[in-house]
Design goal:
Order of helices and strands: HEEEHHEHHEEHHH
Oligomer: single chain
CATH topology of the domain at 54-155: Arc Repressor Mutant, subunit A
Shape: globular
Helix content: 40-55%
Distance between the termini: 59 Å
Number of helices: 8
CATH architecture of the domain at 54-155: Orthogonal Bundle
Number of strands: 6
Strand content: 5-15%
Mean pLDDT: 83
CATH superfamily of the domain at 54-155: Winged helix-like DNA-binding domain superfamily/Winged helix DNA-binding domain
């Protein structure tokens, strides 16, 4: 095997073709070279890595994300539902559904906020803490595997650039944007 073919296996190169498509050397459909198309594909990759790391538990990646955000070691125990939804980047209704599933599994506990009785604070149960501790190393390793094709400095640069783009566009970070409104369809308008 030549040095060139070994290199291309380790780091696939990209080529831009007419129509601004990125055609990968490895098998896979071409992707438009625009932020949305690339972000969607990157999201699919990250979600698959996350799903594989929690597959044995029957948790979804989103349920594990909730656990990670309210974990006492690295998260924010006693966080309220609205703050949790903001951190994860989902709407409050979906956050509520995720929390409800975790409560029913005995992994999350809700308690009343002494300062505002309408607000429930979220915390992992001892069972939830044990499960999170067991899954966290594999979940972290799965996320790191995604970036393994980059040199360490490139990994940090990619993450720094993603943070910068996100921070510069926070006004566009609105959960649920782009969903079709209930009762609306193209067919109904024509």
């Amino acid at each position: 095997m030549s040095a060139r073919s070994r290199t291309s296996e380790a780091t696939p190169s990209l080529s831009t073709t007419k129509g601004r498509l990125v055609k990968f050397e490895r098998p896979g459909p071409p992707v438009r070279r625009v932020p949305l198309a690339l972000a969607r594909r990157f999201f699919q990759i990250c979600t698959t890595a996350a799903a594989e790391s929690v597959a044995e538990t029957l948790l979804t990646p989103s349920e594990f994300a909730v656990m990670a955000y309210i974990n006492g070691d690295v998260g924010e125990p006693d966080i309220d539902l609205t703050s949790l939804a903001e951190r994860i980047g989902i709407d409050r209704n979906n956050a509520s559904l995720l929390v409800e599933r975790l409560v029913s599994k005995g992994l999350v506990d809700r308690r009343e906020n002494d300062e505002d009785r309408r607000v429930r604070l979220l915390r992992l149960t001892s069972r939830g803490e044990k499960l999170h501790r067991r899954l966290y190393p594999e979940a972290t390793a799965g996320q790191q595997r995604i970036l393994r094709c980059l040199k360490p400095a490139e990994r940090e640069l990619l993450l720094d650039l993603l943070v910068r783009v996100i921070e510069a566009n926070l006004t566009l970070a609105r959960p649920g944007t782009g969903r079709r409104k209930r009762g609306s369809s193209l067919a109904a308008k024509t």
